[in-house]
User: Fold these one by one.
Assistant:
Number 1:
Amino acid sequence: MNGIDLAKSTYFSSLGITGLAAFLKSDNPPLIKQLWVGAFLIIILPAMFTSHLYSAAVDTSATDKFTSLGLGLDQLQITLKSLFFVQNIKRIRRILLQFETFHCVNCCGVRALEILSRKAKFIKRIQNTYNCASFMCFLSWILAPVVLSPEGLFLTRNVDKMMKALPPIYPFRIDYFPMVQIVYLIETIMTMGALMHFTSLNLFFFTTLVLLCVQFQILNESLHNNGRRKAIRMNEFVIDHQRLLRICQEAKDALSPLLAVQLLISLLTICFAIFELTMINEDYKEGISQIIIFFRKSTYTVIIFAELLLYCWLSSELQNSCDSIREGLYFSPWYENLKNTSYKDYIIINCRAMRPFKLTALFLINIQLSTFLEGLCIERCLEGSSDSSSFCQ
């Protein structure tokens, strides 16, 4: 498999077994895939969101309220992302890169394939790491009731022990055998489905933005001569550059509403999760219970941190990749082509590259690494300053 095929396969592999890849490949995916996706988007994800909001309304403990509210907001985010993906599938397809149609890829030849192969392998490693982290989060949430109260969940009909394994957060009675076990099995399936969509959508957008950055790298590489090939012609360079900028703008327009929801809900969820971690010692007196609950909540918090960090980091990387065109032009042998190319072409390209490209949340807030730090109040603490920077700066 060459670099182009390997890079393309990362788009579909990043969507995992959610069934969304079928919608990306075809306008009319198989019926079984449509039913699979529809079951999650119409039934499972909204049911989880509703149940957690109901739990937040009826819980008496402040910690339980924050836990349910954080999970409910997170399920809402996953549902909105999945629905947006399906409803805007044609728009998302336009963001996908057809590498073989770019002049710079054909100009670089083997070098372009090497870059694509190396970056595709890097993406695979990130995907595997993120999938493993999500799987650990899934295990921590599902196995916590089993470890905390195995008798209450499987071996007894005592109501008190059952409630310790699975608290009564449903609008119907579950304090009898085998209703506790049935609800536990349903929750396991629903949690697995929610985490699948959570992980796959994040990895898909991660893959798209990383390969956009790679395309800018190949475009810069094509400006230089070597012993086996000539540098790209300026008119072809301009065509590729403008096409990449249009794709970036399409990605920005498509991701802008999602990033707004992402930023707001992630910050709220992180605040709730950190508060819950501080309350573990008060709510759980037994040593093993504290360890299990701490592991359960900390894995969930780390996943939310990683999700927000990925988007902010990739936005900064895409901005740097767009800005790198100026540096690539400066260090290219532009002085050798002055007889065939006017100064005007270089000046126009350089001026266009000077306008920074940034992903935004509803075109109001720039998404970048500094946004991640500001949102968590880390930058303010480190500087010890009383003046807080604005998100819009």
Number 2:
Amino acid sequence: MLRIETSQELMMVFLIGEIDHHCAGELREEIDRVAERVRPKTMILDFSDVGFMDSSGIGLVMGRVRLMKSFGGEVRIQGAHGNIRKVMQIAGLHRVAQMDDEK
């Protein structure tokens, strides 16, 4: 599940629940549909309310990074905590998307 808020140059994507292969495709499609319409300069993916993420979540982030680069924009990650943050760091997402400081 997700909630998306947009302003002129910013797209906030609040991801909620679990991100796995069962739901990742639907999430990608919804995020991309809005991003292609809005063409934001910055997309923030908020993982604060994500309790579980498998490799599909890594693919979700990587695909949005590629999409945003095609617009000349960037992706930022916020709210990733615990194991989700660890998985992201092991996958090297901090090299392609700015991650907020762990709290």
Number 3:
Amino acid sequence: MHPAARLLEGARRSNIGARAQRGVSLFTSYFSQHPECTQLRGNCQSATDSGNIKPLEGVKVLDLTRVLAGPFATMILGDLGAEVIKVEKPGSGDDTRFWGPPFVGSESAYFLSVNRNKKSIAVNLKDPKGTKIIKQLAQACDVLIENYIPGKLAEMGLGYEALMKTAPHVIYCSITGYGQTGPLFNRAGYDAVACAMSGLMHITGPEDGDPVRPGVAMTDLATGLYAHGAIMAGLLQRSKTGKGMHIDCNLLSSQIYPICGHKLLVGQTAGLRKVACLTQIAANFLNGGIEAKRWGTAHGSIVPYQSFKAKDGYLVIGAGNDQQFSTVCRVMDLCELVDDPRFKTNKLRVQHRKELLQVLTGRFSGKTTAEWLELFEGSGIPYGPINSIKQVFSEPQVAHNGLILEMEHPMAGKISVAGPAVRFNSFNISTTRPPPVIGQHTVEVLKSILGYEDNYIYELIKDKTISQNEVQ
């Protein structure tokens, strides 16, 4: 048997459920493309409500992103019930599949961390038949999200302007490094560079030391969060207007402007220009001309608000007002500081930062972290230890909040990843699909969504336009 035929036969056996669901998929796809029928769709869903209907069930997302910002956004959409179809390059797939160690079996932990609740299809976009598949899927989907360099997809006939002619209902979200236009628009976007150019790295690090990159890709993650929110806004807007739109979202703007500095394009551009991730740092400069600096763990405008070294580790405390400062002094048996004229107000404490911190640092070093945590318990003061990652996942509150998800992966076996940060009282998002292997769902998607026949799929596999993983 030809390898393509063997793959197709395996996919057929595993696709019985998909065939049974085909009518439902076509039904939900129709109503997703006809916002005027929203009420009818809602009534039909209510009639089949199993008690755990997620808000994005019936919404299809065509995911042409890779690495972190885009996959993080689509993972959240998948957690909320969307059917996310991840398009990958046959053979290699998403870049992060090879970002390791560590690997869990043959799978990189990095990829596993941001790709749950997705289906993977392997399509060669350099093949005209491959781009045709993407165009047809765009027509059947509600959202298309991509993170190519501006103009790259347009060269393939997959840009916003081209797709809007055949899929005017689609919410088309582009994630780039610097935006769709401007002097830097054609540069590749990377978290560390955007972190540097946006000023985030300038304000991160020891007070008298070098700039420091945050321990995780905060610019990518912020962009993914903003992109997810913008897509949700786009879907809401479409329910009112019946029209799709283009969302321009980029790494640089995610540190400077709200809603990632994106533009929702519906006929005309509505640019949003207010400070967001840089918050008071940007406001301080824009309104007062005050250049920011690095403070280590400390805060430029609040004292005390930083980490302190105990006998065996570190903890962080904060005193955001005079009453909290008084409580800190009482807990630490330093009541004389409350009446000290140098420390009466936060403004004075900022001015006399060094003198105050010298006293507090000396006192904190006299007890263990556990002793200080016990003393601050119930005080109303914001406080907590600086945990190692092992300690993080030993925290009872982390387990209580359901932040550890366990799944059975077809290649890696049992895996655990960090779970969703938000909980809802009307549905459960902890039931998840494991991250897919490359091309795991190619045949299923082409059959259930596009209605492709076996013979044509066989030819596409044989011609290497698509690939289907043998894992089902």
Number 4:
Amino acid sequence: MNIYAVRLITFSPTHTSKQVGEAIVRGTGLSEITQTDLTLHPAGEPEIPENTLTVIAVPVYGGRVAPLALERMKDLRTSGAPAVLAVVYGNRAYEKALAELDAFVSERGFKVIAGATFVGEHSYSTERNPIAAGRPDTDDLQFAEAFGTKIRAKIEAATGKDTLYAVDVRRIQRPRQPFLPLFRFLRKVVKLRKSGVPMPRVPETDATLCNHCGYCVLHCPAGAIEKGDECNTVAEKCIRCCACVKGCPQKARIFDTPFAALLSDCFKRQKEDKIIL
């Protein structure tokens, strides 16, 4: 089957999903590439031609696809264009995120021919509480490129649209998860919630460090930070992606959640990326 164009669609506040998506596209070797970054804006040109490969890479928040990513893809439509789905999670669990994304795009006319789960640095990761810090790393991106090469081979082996077969992403191999760290995490979460300790809803800003450069305003996916009022965050809008924390040039923002220490302590073992095609 001849497919010459690829459309890369990403939602990537901290750039992990975008790196994975770009690596997959590189691996396909397709030269006609259109990129759509949903991080700050909805998808333009929502109709995807059926002879265009669509690669979608999005982050997982709390075991689900980032809701804002789905909102910004809601107008996508196609009549059978092949799609590759990648969800990027912070080394804990992606739960049903890949199946959720599959159902979402299938309803919009896509044929899912491959799927993947990748590990990326958790939004809550810090130097004190590292959670999959530095991922996707070189090995992850090489794995993503190799995945793209396999996708290209699958497309070329198909004699037509009918023989470019869909996959059931629910059958993807799950990464190994030792029981004891998971049990310890769940027990501590229950204890934390019963303790009544207030959970932070938004990042905090050190007003002595903030110079009102506006970086956080420009890079907040949800528009939760207003120009001129950079030391505050609108809780009702904040999605806790921590793009403002990780990107602040002055290191003036922090998100001090007790979940960071729990995740860092209980999920030290790095999980492997998995694919199905």
